[in-house]
Design brief:
Largest sheet: 10 strands, mixed
Bound molecules: S-adenosyl-L-homocysteine, iron/sulfur cluster
Distance between the termini: 21 Å
Strand content: 15-25%
Shape: elongated
Number of strands: 12
Structural class: alpha/beta
Strand order of the largest sheet: 1-2-3-4-7-8-9-10-11-12
Length: 342
């Protein structure tokens, strides 16, 4: 649903302001499946809304549950498809949101990158993913009040290349008029779009920032992440230092361990040096999820060497648990066939 066009429509039609609040409440609860089910509204308004608006810009095309994660393939109004993933962490539900159909950055290890770029999502399409999962949780168990608690912008696409819609969506998600999700429960991951990292720093929010690093060697990084040619590693690391200096917040680096590519002893030394250089840097080691790119995850003994060395030195890192790789729903595995019939 697009809250601002709904609000202007109601204004133009002369409805009192509380009607907007009622509709918004229904949308946020994600209980009614359509405007027609909003029984607290007068019938003529329900019909008027039904013929003029979409409660959600997304329609479910396919749902794939697995241990701890559910992946939804969602169809947009123009027939394009995106994927969105719900993760069950026992204590909370987290959703991995897409911001673009495909991605223009073409990282070699990422399935989304390999499918190319189709378009950016609108703010409405971004917030409707949260609505979709809240509705899903409601349908799974109407008695419980389970809701999406955390959001990670780590689905398809590069969030910082859809800046204005990302900001619009975040404003809604965080606001008391929206879901009011705590800023610390939101994380955004970027492949390293330097000007937007600077803009993000200046926003001065408490939203978590993650930077996909994957190598500390400029030529290796450029090979696996072509964006590194435009925004070189040295410049990237210097805006990362600026971020922590200005915000005094932790910055998370994502590092998927790829066999023979970024898991050599020299890579480990560079990681150690990086973490020692700034106590607000935090490293998330991720086991590489398999896609069709032919790269392989590091061997278990290499992963152990990395984790043991970092632990011994008391450095800030974690070895991430990978969700949904059995249903191709893990990081970097989100892909839809752009030629699917609409
Ligand atoms: N475009 C943004 C956010 C979406 S990708 C970014 O690149 O940061 C979300 C995360 O998945 C990123 O950290 C990305 O590097 C990681 N990723 C992509 N492909 C992966 C793979 N095959 N295995 C593990 N992580 C992967
Ligand atoms: Fe795009 Fe992120 Fe995938 Fe790179 S890793 S291609 S930036 S979605």
């Amino acid at each position: 649903m697009d809250p601002s066009s709904l609000s202007s429509f109601l204004n133009q039609q002369g409805y009192p302001a509380y009607r907007y609040r009622q509709i918004l409440k229904n949308y946020l609860s994600a209980r009614p499946a359509s405007f027609l089910e909003m029984t607290d509204l007068p019938k003529p308004l329900r019909h008027q809304l039904d013929s003029n608006f979409k409660l959600s810009s997304l329609s479910l095309s396919q749902l794939q549950p697995s241990q701890g994660a559910v992946k939804a393939k969602l169809q947009l109004s123009d027939g394009q498809m995106i994927e969105s993933v719900l993760m069950d962490y026992d204590q909370w539900y987290s959703v991995c949101l897409s911001t673009q159909v495909g991605c223009p950055l073409g990282c070699r290890f990422c399935a989304t990158g390999q499918m190319g770029f189709i378009r950016k999502l609108t703010a409405e399409e971004i917030i409707d993913q949260v609505h979709f999962w809240n509705n899903y949780l409601y349908q799974q168990s109407p008695e419980s009040s389970s809701k999406v608690d955390r959001l990670v912008f780590m689905g398809m696409g590069e969030p910082f290349l859809n800046w204005s819609n990302l900001i619009l969506a975040l404003d809604f998600i965080r606001s008391p008029q929206g879901w009011f999700v705590g800023q610390r429960k939101i994380s955004i991951s970027t492949a390293g779009i330097i000007p937007q990292i600077e803009n993000f720093t200046n926003l001065d929010t408490q939203i978590n920032l993650a930077v996909s690093l994957h190598s500390l060697n400029q030529s290796v990084r450029s090979e696996i992440m072509p964006i590194s040619r435009q925004y070189p590693l040295d410049d990237l690391l210097s805006v990362c230092h600026q971020y922590t200096q200005k915000t005094r917040r932790q910055l998370f680096f994502e590092y998927a361990l790829i066999r023979g590519v970024n898991d050599r002893p020299s890579d480990l030394s560079l990681l150690i040096k990086l973490l020692k250089s700034n106590h607000l840097f935090f490293l998330n080691l991720i086991p590489l999820n398999l896609t069709s790119h032919g790269m392989l995850p590091s061997l278990p003994e290499t992963v152990n060497l990395f984790t043991q060395s970092l632990s011994k030195l008391g450095l800030n890192y974690s070895l991430r648990r990978s969700f949904g790789s059995d249903i191709q729903a893990a990081c970097g595995q989100l892909i839809v066939n752009p030629k699917l019939p609409v």
